[in-house]
Amino acid sequence: MNTVPNTAAVPSAVPAPSEPLRHTGRSEPAQSAAPFLPPQPGGDTSGAAAARAAMVARLEKSGELRLGPVREALLALPREVLMPQAYVRRSAPDETPPRWNLLDWSRPADRDELLERLHSGDSVAIQHDGEPVLGRTTGSRRGGSITAMSSTMGLTAELLQLLDLRPGQRVLDVGTGAGVTAAVACFVCGHDGVVTLDIDPHVTAAARERLSALGYQPTAVTGDGTAGWPDAGPYDRVFVSFAVRRVPTALVEQLAPGGRALMTLGTSSPSWPGLAVVDKRPDGTVEAELRAVEFGHRAGAGFDRLFLSASLRKAITTADGWTQRSRLAPPADTAHGMWLALDALYPGLVRHFGAEDLAIGAPECGSWMRVRAAGHRRWDVTTCGPRDIWAEVQDAATRWWAAGEPAAYRLHLDTGDVQRATSPNGALAWQLPHAPGDAR
Description:
Distance between the termini: 21 Å
Strand order of the largest sheet: 8-7-6-9-10-11-12-18-19-20
Number of strands: 20
Low-confidence stretches: 1-18, 24-43
Shape: globular
Largest sheet: 10 strands, mixed
Structural class: alpha+beta
Radius of gyration: 23 Å
């Protein structure tokens, strides 16, 4: 892939500040946290400050963001500096090859759409097919895939608050992406103790340059995220922004006494993630919990994922199969602890969340299940294929109920690289698989 001159690293209209944005210790926005946009007649005609405030207000209204340093950081962070370019998909979900357009903040025609994209709260695509991020030309891309992105803001805000960042802490940000987490950590903790690590050198280079435009100079390095970065450890906080199959031992070893690490644990299915919360006590012993959550980070590089093809999604919602009338209710969508257990006990299932009814498929063998209400306490269950997914769901639900309907499981990081999840009463348990391909 050809690399064009490095002229688009940071928008030319955005001057670098003399000092970095800092956390003031107050619950209201920091006075030094003005967005770094050029003076314009009539104030901020770009609308960036207003869009940023509106995004924060939506996060507060949804309960995903509270008063505190993370809120201050998000209010202060000019996202158009970290993401002056972003991709938008112009093709239908199942259209092949897919088509994307690269929006650029320096182009007035792109600015309104890019501003909406950056502050919508949705994930933001920042890299296509492993390309250099700095110095790109705008235009369309066909085929390939998005290889780096900034996570949804609701997920980011909730996890950063759970991380409990404080001034002076040493932070390892694993999976740099656009640099949002690194920027928040620098704002709250000070950049001297922040390390941001990504497997892609192009992502690292772009984050280093754009964080510098905000006045931040964390240690930005390239390497395997699951191996961490021991040179600057131990760390008070470790934040992993991509899904792994098991807790990387190296990250636990690099956690300081009194420290905390957060990461999404998942299987090949994207449907039912878990959040690993790993705390190292002052005496150096480790206590970990696996929480069933609705949303998690996407998988990292080398992590094969299962997805429902267009034909399988159509079959699940419209095709005929073997239908039985059942008086057993399907588990509620909010029973996250049950769905997490199903994913562990019966791997290979993917839910079709876009379907009107409960619909689950097994892409590797083509099996599927559909459950529709058929009156008072009656459901029509239609299944097809070699796997009886309805029986698997009911078995997982029965075992989950017997375990006390847990929403979280103890996570045991045993000697010999064995990792197990158990319900609080011990009635439900499974072992996390070994996965040498977890590198990123």
